[in-house]
Each structure stands twice: as structure tokens, then as C-alpha cells.
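Notes from hallway chat w/ T.B., transcribed later so I don't forget. T.B. wanted the structure written out for a chain they're using in a teaching module, and asked if we could keep both sequence and C-alpha cells in one place. Agreed to drop them here.
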Amino acid sequence: MEFFACIRASHEDEALRNMVKKAYEEMQETYPSHSYVNEYGKIILPEMETGLAPGPKKRLRLRLAPGLVMIGCLLAIGAIWLIHKADRSERLSTTALLTKKNTERSEYKYLLLPDSTQVWLNASSSLEYPDHFNSSKREVILSGEAYFDVRHADRSPFIIQTGRISTTVLGTAFNIKAYPDRKNIIVSVSRGKVKVSYDDVPVATLVNGQQVKVNSQQNTVEEKKIAPTQVASWQRGDMSYEDEDFEDIIADLERLYNVKIKIGNSSLRNLTVSTSFRREIGIEQALEVLCQLTDTNLKQANGWYIIE
């Protein structure tokens, strides 16, 4: 039967095995002499459990009550299994057909998701989403930076997964910056309300004009207020940094201008910097601004910009 095959195949599904085991243990308390099927789908005979040597074969005399109990248990467990199977199928169906959109360096994209949520994808980023969302939740996977304007749905939260950080909303506008090479993941809200979790543990609930910075290396969380106009300022060509690590800013500039930049002095990497400039000033002027702030020099060699 497919049911027993499922039990045997569910060696990694502890919850299902425990349900089966509990049901048969309760039956054995009332009718200890009967054979049963264990949580791994294996038939257990009385002689197998007691360790007694098999004796002469005896004719089994079945009673009605134990038979009904067995049928009831099988029906109950079968129902649990069907629900479990259906739930698992639904989860798989939402992730089986994923669309992935990418941006290259110096590239930006506008996306309209199946639920009419709008997404502006920043440079060197990717977004994965299903071709349709189920009724219980809308879930996407982001790597990089994006600004979301989420279509409101009371019973279907919108969830953005970015590594160990998840951001949950119903209907709002916010920015997530979560490049793989960054120490910090930053969530900033311009409208509405979002919940940010780290390893499934809620760490912040943000409303408009609030920002949270999660450092996955040091396991720290920092909240602060910002001007709503600062959220996703990159869409307007404004590059704004406040208390950002120098190496994170350099990585941003590499993506923004599609260039290669080397930090010659390693002590600069974790230096905290606050600055802003317009994108159209170009890479050389942007780097000159950073060099003035850090008292360093800029030079070029073999296609690299070098700060030392």
C-alpha cells in the first residue's frame, strides 16, 4: 500500500513517525496480544517483540473489537498521512516552478509579480518567485537589493527570504539590502509595517521611517529612525551611506559602476563612513570623495582602481 510505503519512506519525518507510533502504542495498551505495524511501516508479530522462539502454528481467533480498533487506527493515521501529503505537495508546488530574474552590474529592472506587487531590482541582484502564489502566503527569495511595493492581502502575507533573514508584510513599501558579500542586511520602511525575523526569531517590527540593520556575523540588531525619502534613494540616483563599513561601500560602487576596486590598506575595510553623492558624478569622483574622507590616495593600474 502507498500508505505503508510512505511511512517507510518518511525516515526523516519525525512528526509523522511519532503520530503512527503513538496510535499503535495506545492500541497495544488495550489489546497487547495483537500484531501491529510500527512507525517505519514494518509488521511486528508478538514473537518478534518478545524474542520467543517460534512454536507450532496456531489458528488465530480474531475478535471484532480489536479488528475495529485496528481499522479505526488505520483510518485515523491514513487521514493524518493524506493531510500531511497534501500539505507537502502544496509546499512543493509553490516552489517547483520558480522564475528567477537577475540584474548585472550597472543594471536595474522593474518587475511586476503575479499578485501585482511591484519590485525594483538593484544592480547585481536576483529575485526568485513562483508563477502563482498560493492562498496562505506569498513567498520570494532575494539576493542583493530591491525595493518592494507590496499589494495588500489580509490573509496572504508577503514574505521575502534573504538568507537567515525573513521579512513579512501584508501591504507596504520598503527596501531590503542583502548582498551576499555584505556583513549587514538592512531593511528600511517607507510606508506600512513589516516584521523582520532572524533564524525564525522576530527581531524587529518596523513602521514608516524606521530601519533595522542585522549583522549576521556578530548577531547584532540595530534599529534607528530615518527620513522616508531616504528609503531606496538609489532609485533616484542618490547614493547615501550612514555608518557603513568602507568595504561595503566599495563593493556597492563596484556593482554600480561595473569596475574593479582594490583596498590597498586593510585597516580601511572596517572603517565606518557616512557620505552621499549623486550617481552621475562617476566612479572617479565618487572614489575621490571617499579618499578625502579617509585621508587616502587613489591610483589606477592594470584596469584596477586602488585606494591606499
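Follow-up for T.B.: The two ends are 70 Å apart (CA to CA). Might be a good example for the class.
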